[in-house]
């Protein structure tokens, strides 16, 4: 029979932001968190007030990406959980509550419950955009999150490799099942730009995501090159999209696409 949209099941929970975006990937390691952090940076640069909920419970990397790796614990005031702040972005991460190297072995429903709690009980301060960095993959935790959270749309990160694309397709199918609009596909590690000569090399192939987006009838948000700078900047805690240059421009265009 017809099923009620579970995302409308609790109308009393206020929407935490004007626009709630999930950044998802069919599998780990494609740069989902890098994309989430840089989209946050690009949107901030474009004048938006941005928050990130790091829901990647198995490998929370948003704290390190934003230079918050030394943040331990979360303060709670009478208004709710107080997010950490980095470069103007509000951040709540499971990484703030777990010790480094301490594996999280929660099962799907527990994860979904924790994420829901973080989403609803944080004093986000009504940002323009809230980005949820999803756990990688399409298991029951991911499905539960997609089903129960008020997500306006999903951005799917993938690499040009066929295998990654197969996984990306699974992620898209998951969001379609939960009636979450796909805001677009973004191809990460698209071409390798040699830091010495600038020559592009197509290590994982190139262009497959654009073609896939066309086939699936979803927006293509652009290509992010594989660069040493991007990897290095991830480790220094200030996403490259805050600054100027070709990679920042690519993220700026992707951010425009997300808001379109
Ligand atoms: P995921 O969230 O999909 O698991 P991450 O965002 O944590 O992936 O990225 C995995 C690793 O790849 C990190 O070390 C990150 O710095 C690096 N990385 C991601 N995207 C790029 C890129 N375009 N160029 C260079 N390194 C990248």
Spell out the key features of this protein.
alpha/beta; ATP binding; two-stranded antiparallel ribbon; 12 strands; iron-sulfur; ATP-binding; eight-stranded mixed sheet; single chain; nucleotide-binding; 260 residues; binds adenosine-5'-diphosphate; Iron-sulfur cluster carrier protein; 34% helix; Rossmann fold
What would your notes on this structure say?
The protein has helices spanning 32-45, 62-65, 108-121, 140-148, 162-177, 208-216, 228-236, 246-259, and strands at 19-24, 50-54, 76-77, 80-81, 84-86, 89-93, 129-133, 153-158, 182-187, 192-193, 200-201, 220-223. It is of the alpha/beta class. The protein has a single domain (14-259), classed as Rossmann fold, CATH 3.40.50.300. The strands form three sheets. It has an eight-stranded mixed sheet, sandwiched between helices. Strand 3 and strand 4 form a beta hairpin. The model is unreliable at 8-12 (pLDDT under 50). Bound molecules: adenosine-5'-diphosphate. Adenosine-5'-diphosphate is lined by residues 25, 28-34, 61, 136, 188-189, 224, 226-227, 230-231, 234. It comes from Hyphobacterium lacteum.
Outline the fold blueprint.
Elements (H helix, E strand, L loop, with lengths): L18 E6 L7 H14 L4 E5 L7 H4 L10 E2 L2 E2 L2 E3 L2 E5 L14 H14 L7 E5 L6 H9 L4 E6 L3 H16 L4 E6 L4 E2 L6 E2 L6 H9 L3 E4 L4 H9 L9 H14 L1
Parallel strand pairs: 1-7, 1-8, 2-6, 2-7, 8-9, 9-12
Antiparallel strand pairs: 3-4, 5-6, 10-11
Helix pairs in contact: 1-8, 3-4
Adenosine-5'-diphosphate binds next to helix 1 and helix 7.
